[in-house]
Amino acid sequence: MHYEPNTTDHGLPHDPFKSCVVPRPIGWISTLSVDGAANLAPFSQFQNLGFNPPYVMFSANEGDGPAGRGGRKDTVNNAEKTGEFVWNMAIYDLREAVNISAGDFPPDVDEFAEAGVTKAASVLVKPPRVAESPVQFECEYYSTLRLPGLGDGGAGAADIVIGRVKMIHVADDALDADGKLDIPRLKPLARLGYYDYTMVETVFQMLIPGAGEKMMKGLEGQTAGPKKAAE
What we know:
By secondary structure, the protein is an alpha+beta fold. It has helices spanning 17-20, 74-82, 95-101, 111-115, 183-186, 213-220; strands at residues 24-25, 27-32, 38-43, 46-51, 54-61, 84-88, 119-120, 129-130, 135-147, 158-170, 189-191, 197-199.
Protein backbone atom coordinates (compact mmCIF):
# COMPACT_ATOMS: atom_id res chain seq x y z
CA MET A 1 0.00 0.00 0.00
CA HIS A 2 1.01 3.62 -0.38
CA TYR A 3 -0.64 6.97 0.25
CA GLU A 4 0.00 10.72 0.22
CA PRO A 5 -0.14 12.16 3.77
CA ASN A 6 -2.98 14.66 4.26
CA THR A 7 -4.13 13.96 0.69
CA THR A 8 -5.22 10.36 0.16
CA ASP A 9 -6.71 7.82 2.56
CA HIS A 10 -4.26 5.20 3.83
CA GLY A 11 -7.13 2.73 4.24
CA LEU A 12 -5.88 1.52 7.63
CA PRO A 13 -7.73 1.70 10.96
CA HIS A 14 -4.90 3.87 12.37
CA ASP A 15 -2.45 6.29 10.74
CA PRO A 16 0.92 4.47 10.51
CA PHE A 17 3.18 7.54 10.17
CA LYS A 18 4.38 7.81 13.77
CA SER A 19 5.07 4.08 13.91
CA CYS A 20 7.39 4.21 10.91
CA VAL A 21 10.15 6.25 12.57
CA VAL A 22 10.81 4.41 15.83
CA PRO A 23 11.89 4.28 18.54
CA ARG A 24 12.01 7.99 19.37
CA PRO A 25 13.75 9.32 22.50
CA ILE A 26 11.51 11.27 24.82
CA GLY A 27 12.28 14.89 25.54
CA TRP A 28 11.12 15.31 29.14
CA ILE A 29 11.55 19.06 29.32
CA SER A 30 11.37 21.27 32.41
CA THR A 31 11.08 25.05 32.18
CA LEU A 32 10.09 28.09 34.21
CA SER A 33 7.67 30.79 33.13
CA VAL A 34 8.67 34.44 33.36
CA ASP A 35 6.66 34.50 36.59
CA GLY A 36 8.60 31.55 38.01
CA ALA A 37 5.97 28.83 37.55
CA ALA A 38 7.54 25.39 37.00
CA ASN A 39 6.51 23.34 33.98
CA LEU A 40 7.34 19.74 33.06
CA ALA A 41 6.21 18.00 29.86
CA PRO A 42 7.31 15.10 27.59
CA PHE A 43 7.80 15.42 23.83
CA SER A 44 8.20 12.41 21.55
CA GLN A 45 10.11 14.30 18.87
CA PHE A 46 13.46 14.82 20.58
CA GLN A 47 17.07 14.32 19.53
CA ASN A 48 20.64 15.47 20.04
CA LEU A 49 22.18 17.66 17.34
CA GLY A 50 25.93 17.36 17.01
CA PHE A 51 28.28 17.19 19.94
CA ASN A 52 30.99 19.81 19.49
CA PRO A 53 29.38 21.77 21.06
CA PRO A 54 26.38 19.62 22.01
CA TYR A 55 22.89 20.78 21.01
CA VAL A 56 19.50 19.14 21.47
CA MET A 57 16.10 19.76 19.92
CA PHE A 58 12.48 19.01 20.70
CA SER A 59 9.41 19.58 18.56
CA ALA A 60 6.06 20.69 19.96
CA ASN A 61 2.89 20.64 17.87
CA GLU A 62 0.09 23.15 18.25
CA GLY A 63 -3.47 21.95 18.53
CA ASP A 64 -6.32 21.41 20.93
CA GLY A 65 -5.40 19.29 23.93
CA PRO A 66 -7.84 17.57 26.31
CA ALA A 67 -8.65 20.93 27.93
CA GLY A 68 -9.13 22.55 24.53
CA ARG A 69 -6.57 25.30 25.18
CA GLY A 70 -4.70 24.84 21.91
CA GLY A 71 -2.04 27.32 20.83
CA ARG A 72 1.69 27.07 21.39
CA LYS A 73 2.89 24.82 24.18
CA ASP A 74 3.84 26.37 27.54
CA THR A 75 7.24 24.70 27.25
CA VAL A 76 7.99 26.53 24.00
CA ASN A 77 6.83 29.88 25.37
CA ASN A 78 8.87 29.44 28.53
CA ALA A 79 12.05 28.39 26.71
CA GLU A 80 11.84 31.33 24.32
CA LYS A 81 11.00 33.95 26.94
CA THR A 82 13.50 32.85 29.61
CA GLY A 83 16.21 31.43 27.32
CA GLU A 84 16.56 28.19 29.30
CA PHE A 85 15.26 24.64 29.64
CA VAL A 86 16.33 21.27 31.06
CA TRP A 87 16.11 17.83 29.49
CA ASN A 88 15.53 14.95 31.92
CA MET A 89 16.02 11.32 30.89
CA ALA A 90 12.70 9.47 31.00
CA ILE A 91 13.16 5.90 32.24
CA TYR A 92 10.85 2.94 32.76
CA ASP A 93 10.64 3.42 36.52
CA LEU A 94 9.36 6.97 35.92
CA ARG A 95 6.88 6.04 33.18
CA GLU A 96 3.77 6.95 35.18
CA ALA A 97 5.19 10.34 36.11
CA VAL A 98 6.10 10.99 32.47
CA ASN A 99 2.58 10.07 31.39
CA ILE A 100 0.92 12.28 34.01
CA SER A 101 3.09 15.24 33.05
CA ALA A 102 1.80 14.92 29.47
CA GLY A 103 -1.60 16.25 30.57
CA ASP A 104 -2.88 19.55 29.19
CA PHE A 105 -2.54 21.56 32.40
CA PRO A 106 -2.96 25.35 32.64
CA PRO A 107 0.29 27.36 32.67
CA ASP A 108 0.16 27.98 36.43
CA VAL A 109 -0.07 24.28 37.36
CA ASP A 110 3.15 22.66 38.60
CA GLU A 111 3.52 19.34 36.75
CA PHE A 112 6.33 18.31 39.11
CA ALA A 113 3.74 18.19 41.90
CA GLU A 114 1.07 16.60 39.70
CA ALA A 115 3.49 13.84 38.62
CA GLY A 116 4.90 13.34 42.12
CA VAL A 117 8.54 14.02 41.23
CA THR A 118 11.07 16.13 43.10
CA LYS A 119 12.70 19.37 41.97
CA ALA A 120 16.49 19.49 42.03
CA ALA A 121 18.27 22.83 41.65
CA SER A 122 20.21 23.33 38.44
CA VAL A 123 23.70 24.84 38.35
CA LEU A 124 23.80 27.15 35.33
CA VAL A 125 20.10 27.64 34.53
CA LYS A 126 17.02 28.44 36.61
CA PRO A 127 14.58 25.65 35.58
CA PRO A 128 14.71 22.75 38.05
CA ARG A 129 15.73 19.21 37.16
CA VAL A 130 13.79 16.03 37.93
CA ALA A 131 15.75 14.66 40.88
CA GLU A 132 14.64 11.08 40.22
CA SER A 133 15.93 11.15 36.63
CA PRO A 134 19.44 9.65 36.26
CA VAL A 135 20.61 12.09 33.56
CA GLN A 136 19.81 15.75 32.94
CA PHE A 137 21.02 18.42 30.49
CA GLU A 138 20.90 22.08 31.43
CA CYS A 139 20.29 23.95 28.17
CA GLU A 140 20.55 27.49 26.89
CA TYR A 141 17.87 28.32 24.32
CA TYR A 142 19.32 28.85 20.84
CA SER A 143 16.51 29.18 18.29
CA THR A 144 13.08 28.03 17.13
CA LEU A 145 12.24 26.74 13.67
CA ARG A 146 8.50 26.97 13.06
CA LEU A 147 6.91 24.54 10.59
CA PRO A 148 3.48 25.55 9.21
CA GLY A 149 0.42 23.41 9.86
CA LEU A 150 -2.50 22.53 7.59
CA GLY A 151 -5.36 22.93 10.05
CA ASP A 152 -7.73 25.86 10.41
CA GLY A 153 -5.80 28.97 11.39
CA GLY A 154 -2.54 27.10 11.03
CA ALA A 155 -3.40 24.46 13.64
CA GLY A 156 -0.93 21.62 13.63
CA ALA A 157 2.10 23.89 13.26
CA ALA A 158 5.25 22.59 14.92
CA ASP A 159 7.85 24.54 16.87
CA ILE A 160 11.30 22.93 16.72
CA VAL A 161 13.20 24.31 19.70
CA ILE A 162 16.99 24.04 19.74
CA GLY A 163 19.15 24.49 22.80
CA ARG A 164 22.85 24.30 23.55
CA VAL A 165 23.78 21.90 26.35
CA LYS A 166 25.67 23.84 29.00
CA MET A 167 25.81 21.32 31.85
CA ILE A 168 25.38 17.54 31.98
CA HIS A 169 24.40 15.67 35.14
CA VAL A 170 24.88 11.90 35.42
CA ALA A 171 24.02 10.03 38.62
CA ASP A 172 26.87 7.92 39.96
CA ASP A 173 24.68 4.81 40.11
CA ALA A 174 23.76 5.25 36.44
CA LEU A 175 27.26 4.09 35.44
CA ASP A 176 28.56 0.56 35.08
CA ALA A 177 31.94 -0.78 36.18
CA ASP A 178 33.57 0.58 33.00
CA GLY A 179 32.30 4.11 33.64
CA LYS A 180 29.70 3.92 30.84
CA LEU A 181 25.99 4.60 31.16
CA ASP A 182 24.32 1.33 32.15
CA ILE A 183 21.55 1.63 29.57
CA PRO A 184 19.95 -1.84 30.01
CA ARG A 185 19.61 -1.19 33.75
CA LEU A 186 18.29 2.36 33.33
CA LYS A 187 15.76 1.31 30.66
CA PRO A 188 15.26 4.68 28.94
CA LEU A 189 11.75 5.12 27.56
CA ALA A 190 11.14 5.58 23.85
CA ARG A 191 7.99 6.46 21.93
CA LEU A 192 6.50 4.32 19.20
CA GLY A 193 3.28 5.10 17.32
CA TYR A 194 -0.36 4.80 18.36
CA TYR A 195 -0.38 4.61 22.18
CA ASP A 196 2.73 2.45 22.35
CA TYR A 197 6.05 2.88 24.09
CA THR A 198 9.14 0.73 24.48
CA MET A 199 12.26 0.69 26.64
CA VAL A 200 15.90 -0.03 25.88
CA GLU A 201 16.88 -3.39 27.36
CA THR A 202 19.37 -4.75 24.83
CA VAL A 203 22.64 -3.17 23.70
CA PHE A 204 25.13 -4.43 21.10
CA GLN A 205 28.22 -2.92 19.47
CA MET A 206 29.22 -2.53 15.84
CA LEU A 207 32.51 -0.91 14.84
CA ILE A 208 32.98 0.49 11.33
CA PRO A 209 35.72 -1.53 9.59
CA GLY A 210 38.90 0.49 9.18
CA ALA A 211 37.66 3.38 11.33
CA GLY A 212 40.55 5.60 12.40
CA GLU A 213 41.03 7.38 15.70
CA LYS A 214 39.26 10.55 14.52
CA MET A 215 36.20 8.62 13.35
CA MET A 216 36.12 6.60 16.58
CA LYS A 217 36.15 9.81 18.62
CA GLY A 218 33.30 11.11 16.49
CA LEU A 219 31.27 7.93 16.98
CA GLU A 220 31.82 8.19 20.71
CA GLY A 221 30.91 11.88 20.66
CA GLN A 222 34.05 13.26 22.23
CA THR A 223 34.10 17.03 22.41
CA ALA A 224 37.18 19.07 21.56
CA GLY A 225 39.47 20.18 24.36
CA PRO A 226 37.89 18.23 27.25
CA LYS A 227 38.71 19.54 30.69
CA LYS A 228 39.06 17.40 33.77
CA ALA A 229 35.68 17.03 35.44
CA ALA A 230 35.21 18.70 38.80
CA GLU A 231 35.56 16.39 41.78
